Amino acid sequence: MALVRVPSLHRVPDGVEGRDPEYIRRILPRLWLAFELYFRAEVDGFEHVPDEPVLFVGNHSGGASVPDTWLFLLAYNTYFTVEGRPLIGLAHRVITDTPLIGDLARKFGMVKAGPHRAREVLDQGANVLVYPGGDVEALRPTRDRNRIVFDGRKGFLKLAHDAGVKIVPVVATGGQETVLVLNDGRATAKALGFDRFLRIKSVPLTLSIPWGLLPGGLPHLPLPAKIRMQVLPPIDLQERYGDEPDWDDAYDYVTSTMQVALSALAARTILPVLG
């Protein structure tokens, strides 16, 4: 009796090792065109990025589908080319552990969020993209769509300072108009214990396609909102604050700089979703 050999499931490695330049090169033109048309995307300011490893710090939007993250990855690889300095994004385990989506994310260089992994990638000479607000910001109420919500998290500051790299802020509007978030879900996540056991910090009520009204946020079909992104000039924490920064002061400076830029970008929106 012949034995049937069942192929094993191969998990794509992550980070610089898992990034697949040939795959990105092949799929990039189609994905970029699709995102550009669907979201009427505008991404400006890449001329501010220095030719050295940096920590991109962005405001997070769009629930579990995070269209602004994908848009930035596509725009970066289009501007700097696939052969340029790799961009490695830190993502929640909901993204990296999801079948198919997780493999796609790892081929684009995404890694599961964590400070030690981020430092390792920076030391390899790659750029790193982080969203300090995480799911709290990505699932903030729609009424707060144009607010920076980092929830007091300062780990990104210490990462950039210890690694000796500049912070390059990135602000975006429109992503939080791709899903309707009805309330702040932090208290619900804490009451259910999700913050301790699943590292999920927010479980709000959301209205999305195809799920309708749902507690929490599953990957959904984003509404075709216009997304604008602006890359800001770099911030050198070591130059500004020296060897022993006041982290509260540094946090206030970075978030206020981003908030001013985000508010200016949001002022260009005439009507939500339509842009």
Automatic annotation (TrEMBL):
<dbReference type="GO" id="GO:0016746">
    <property type="term" value="F:acyltransferase activity"/>
</dbReference>
<protein>
    <submittedName>
        <fullName>Glycerol acyltransferase</fullName>
    </submittedName>
</protein>
<keyword id="KW-0808">Transferase</keyword>
<dbReference type="InterPro" id="IPR016676">
    <property type="entry name" value="P_lipid/glycerol_AcTrfase_prd"/>
</dbReference>
<dbReference type="Pfam" id="PF01553">
    <property type="entry name" value="Acyltransferase"/>
</dbReference>
<keyword id="KW-0012">Acyltransferase</keyword>
<feature type="domain" description="Phospholipid/glycerol acyltransferase">
    <location>
        <begin position="54"/>
        <end position="175"/>
    </location>
</feature>
<dbReference type="InterPro" id="IPR002123">
    <property type="entry name" value="Plipid/glycerol_acylTrfase"/>
</dbReference>
<dbReference type="GO" id="GO:0016020">
    <property type="term" value="C:membrane"/>
</dbReference>
